[in-house]
Design a protein that fits this description.
mainly alpha; Growth Hormone, Chain: A; 5 helices; about 0% strand
Length: about 210
């Protein structure tokens, strides 16, 4: 199994990538629709709803017996990276498609695009918590550690994206950085999970 300190670094990187997306996606929508309350609402609402749905789905998945939690986590990270790499092109296409359309239609389509990756992001925490609890038996420490490092990664990304990455790389290359982080995290976890089996015993098993 992957040791807790390594999982903490993995989840810090995951949180770092997630906030890069949030910052860049919001600025991308500003460029398409203008700096207004609607653009802010779309991004923030989609992130909050997606994280909530993902957390619920991840919790349900982690409760299933014989679940391969690390493999699920690794696969989700790869899926987030794939979407992230293509996200700005998708947003531009949606912007062209909805040019002149009523705001409710614009909101619904863009919101639907954002909910998909944010739902995947939301599923990562309960999967890693369940894995860490299953190997350590300490619920409080597992939740606290992973939530702390993920939040730390998000805070670092908020600063780095606004001050360093966007200024030096621009929006497209910045999301490619985030996608590369997701890909590295996903591949690392899948490789390590493949060596260990990546599974927890079914509830009640010895």
């Amino acid at each position: 199994m992957i040791r807790a300190p390594i999982l903490a670094l993995v989840f810090l990187a995951s949180g770092f990538a997630a906030l890069i997306y949030q910052v860049v996606w919001q600025r991308s929508l500003f460029a398409i629709y203008g700096v207004n309350i609607e653009s802010v609402t779309i991004v923030v609402s989609a992130f909050m709803l997606g994280l909530g749905i993902g957390s619920f789905a991840g919790g349900k998945l982690s409760a299933r017996p014989g679940r391969a939690l690390l493999r699920w986590f690794g696969g989700i990270e790869l899926a987030i990276g794939v979407f992230g790499a293509a996200s700005l092109g998708l947003f531009r296409s949606v912007g062209e498609l909805t040019a002149g359309a009523p705001m409710p239609a614009v909101f619904a389509l863009t919101f639907a695009l954002l909910v998909l990756p944010t739902t995947l992001m939301g599923a990562t925490l309960p999967l890693l918590v369940a894995h860490t609890v299953g190997t350590s038996g300490n619920v409080g420490r597992s939740v606290g550690l992973l939530y702390f490092v993920n939040t730390l990664g998000s805070a670092l990304a908020s600063f780095a994206t606004s001050v360093v990455l966007l200024a030096g790389l621009g929006q497209q290359r910045t999301v490619w950085v985030a996608a590369a982080i997701n890909a590295a995290v996903g591949l690392f976890v899948l490789i390590r999970a493949g060596r260990s089996g990546g599974r927890l015993p079914a509830a009640g098993a010895a």
